[in-house]
């Protein structure tokens, strides 16, 4: 199993092209509020993660995911 | 504040209200025929109605509704499980099952209730739903209520579906419910049901197809996209509506599985609502008889669909990959799309204006739906109205989405 930090690092890298506000990304950065992803961009980002780790991320978990840290944790759980 | 989240919508609606005509909830003041009406003071060709076979105004259906109202009264005032099951409802269930060549059917009060009800009930906690990403709002509403794990696959992408079925491992065979539509309502594209059915055959699971926009439109006897694709044997549940090609309102689910009779008693959208008025059921029965016996209606529909599609395509407008009774012109700017919609109204053509999230992706759509009731001249008038948009500089094919 990959370490939590590796998931975080992957998410930071994958989000860089969408980081138009040039924020310093951290575990507490929110995807919608801080980075400003639209709902369509969130879904595209989720698909990118799914393909990379060969997992399916259920829609059910999305309401509980606001920050990059929360997403990394969920992906880690799903990739067990 | 409770109301804060509605402010942006209130602002948008206020900006539309300042304009001379309103695209959302436009009031139809008079219906002149299945293809013409008076909308906001303008006599227009109705080219955004989903009235694919024109049966909403068929004299035989109107007569059936009148006779039923006379005989049964205006409403059932109750649920199908209480006092709301009349002989009409039972007869329609038998007839729709027979139309699909299966033994089990449930009739719902609306199409929304049918898809929402089935999607919320079939799969539950511990089960997995794999749904097309561009699914209708009633499907999204249903799966959210289901308690099942919900996984989205890329729109009409059987390879993505297969990948996700593979990831489920042993759970795929017994607990996965795949949900796709026949014709997608906004762009008119047809689902690749042969390939989706092949994925189901490989991995197992169950398949539900929403034929809302394809029933009466596709297939040798009008059963929809699964019939046209030759994969009806792979479909576990077909869901549809009476409010499009059948010209009334209501919905259905048909299935070869005897379990549907038990499932019926678990669907809250079926139990806790009044059943359809007998007049609605009677006109639907008549429409179903007509689409079974008059395949020429489907031919007329497709002749008109091809004529409009080819006409708009030859104007250089972005209309989607293949002809379909839904012909949508994709635009990338909201105010330009609204201007075009108004100009079409002025030219005597009513179409649907579609904005996100109802439209897939971030596009704005001028959505035309074709009817067998349209004359060739009316189709040509619609094409001429779009040509007028080009001439007026309101739409530029190179700038359209």
What keyword list fits this structure?
heterodimer, A: 80 residues, mainly alpha, Non-ribosomal Peptide Synthetase Peptidyl Carrier Protein, Chain A, globular, B: 401 residues, alpha/beta, Aspartate Aminotransferase, domain 1, Aspartate Aminotransferase, domain 2, 2 domains, seven-stranded mixed β-sheet, four-stranded mixed β-sheet, 41% helix
Structure description:
The complex is a heterodimer of chains A (80) and B (401). With 80 residues, chain A is mainly alpha-helical. Chain A has one domain: ACP-like (Non-ribosomal Peptide Synthetase Peptidyl Carrier Protein, Chain A). Helices cover 48% and strands 0% of the residues of chain A. Chain A is globular, with a radius of gyration of 12 Å. Chain A starts with a helix and ends with a helix. Chain B has a seven-stranded mixed β-sheet with strand order 4-10-9-8-7-5-6, sandwiched between helices. Chain B has 401 residues and is of the alpha/beta class. In chain B, helix 4 (111-121) runs parallel beside helix 5 and helix 13 (296-314) runs parallel beside helix 15 (376-391). Chain B folds into two domains: 4-57 and 295-391, Aspartate Aminotransferase, domain 1 (Alpha-Beta Complex); 59-293, Aspartate Aminotransferase, domain 2 (3-Layer(aba) Sandwich), CATH 3.40.640.
Summed up, what is this model?
The complex is a heterodimer of chains A (80) and B (401). With 80 residues, chain A is mainly α. Chain A has three helices and no strands.
Topology summary:
The complex is a heterodimer of chains A (80) and B (401).
Chain A: H1 4-15, H2 39-53, H3 68-78
Chain B: H1 7-17, E1 28-31, E2 36-39, E3 42-46, H2 59-72, H3 87-100, E4 104-108, H4 111-121, E5 128-132, H5 137-146, E6 149-153, H6 158-168, H7 171-175, E7 176-181, H8 193-203, E8 206-210, H9 225-229, E9 237-241, E10 251-255, H10 260-263, H11 268-271, H12 278-293, H13 296-314, E11 326-331, H14 334-346, E12 349-350, E13 352-354, E14 364-369, H15 376-391
Parallel strand pairs in B: 3-12, 5-6, 5-7, 7-8, 8-9
Antiparallel strand pairs in B: 1-2, 2-3, 4-10, 9-10, 11-14, 13-14
Helix pairs in contact in B: 2-12, 3-12, 4-5, 6-8, 13-15
């Amino acid at each position: 199993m990959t370490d939590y930090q590796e998931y975080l690092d992957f998410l930071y890298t994958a989000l860089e092209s969408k980081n138009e506000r040039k924020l310093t990304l951290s575990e507490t950065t929110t995807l919608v509020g801080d980075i400003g992803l639209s709902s369509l961009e969130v879904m595209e980002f989720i698909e990118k993660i799914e393909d990379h780790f060969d997992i399916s991320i259920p829609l059910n978990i999305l309401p509980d995911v606001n920050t990059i840290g929360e997403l990394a944790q969920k992906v880690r759980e799903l990739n067990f | 504040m409770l109301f804060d989240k509605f402010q942006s919508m209130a602002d948008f609606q206020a900006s539309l209200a300042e304009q001379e005509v309103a695209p959302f909830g436009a009031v139809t003041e008079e219906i002149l025929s299945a293809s013409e009406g008076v909308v906001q003071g303008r006599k227009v060709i109705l080219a955004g109605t989903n009235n694919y076979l024109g049966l909403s105004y068929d004299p035989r259906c109107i007569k059936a509704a009148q006779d039923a109202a006379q005989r049964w009264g205006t409403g059932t005032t109750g649920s199908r499980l209480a006092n709301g099951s009349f002989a009409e409802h039972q007869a329609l269930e038998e007839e729709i099952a027979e139309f699909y060549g299966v033994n089990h059917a449930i009739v719902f009060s609306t199409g929304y209730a049918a898809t929402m009800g089935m999607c919320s009930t079939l799969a539950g906690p511990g089960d997995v739903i794999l749904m097309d990403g561009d699914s209708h709002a009633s499907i999204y509403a249903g799966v959210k209520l289901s308690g099942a794990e919900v996984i989205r696959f890329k729109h009409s992408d059987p390879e993505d579906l297969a990948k996700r079925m593979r990831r489920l491992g042993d759970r795929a065979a017994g607990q996965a419910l795949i949900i796709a539509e026949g014709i997608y309502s906004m762009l008119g594209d047809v689902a690749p049901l042969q390939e989706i059915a092949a994925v189901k055959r490989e991995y197992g699971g169950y398949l539900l197809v929403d034929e809302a926009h394809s029933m009466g439109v596709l297939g040798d006897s009008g059963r929809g996209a699964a019939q046209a694709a030759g994969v009806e044997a792979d479909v576990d549940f077909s869901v549809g509506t009476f409010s499009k090609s059948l010209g009334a309102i209501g919905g259905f689910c048909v299935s070869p599985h005897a379990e549907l009779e038990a499932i019926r008693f678990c669907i809250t959208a079926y139990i806790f609502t009044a059943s359809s008025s007998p007049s609605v059921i009677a006109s639907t029965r008549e429409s179903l008889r007509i689409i079974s016996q008059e395949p020429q209606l489907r031919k007329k529909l497709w002749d008109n669909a091809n004529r409009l599609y080819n006409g708009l395509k030859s104007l250089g407008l972005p209309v989607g990959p293949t002809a379909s009774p839904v012909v949508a012109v994709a635009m990338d700017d909201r105010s330009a799309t609204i201007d075009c919609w108004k100009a079409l109204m002025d030219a005597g053509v009513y179409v649907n204006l579609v904005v996100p999230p109802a439209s897939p992706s971030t596009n704005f759509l001028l959505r035309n739906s074709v009817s067998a009731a349209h004359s060739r001249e009316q189709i040509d008038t619609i094409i001429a109205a779009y040509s007028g948009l080009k001439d007026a500089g309101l739409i530029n094919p190179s700038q359209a989405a």
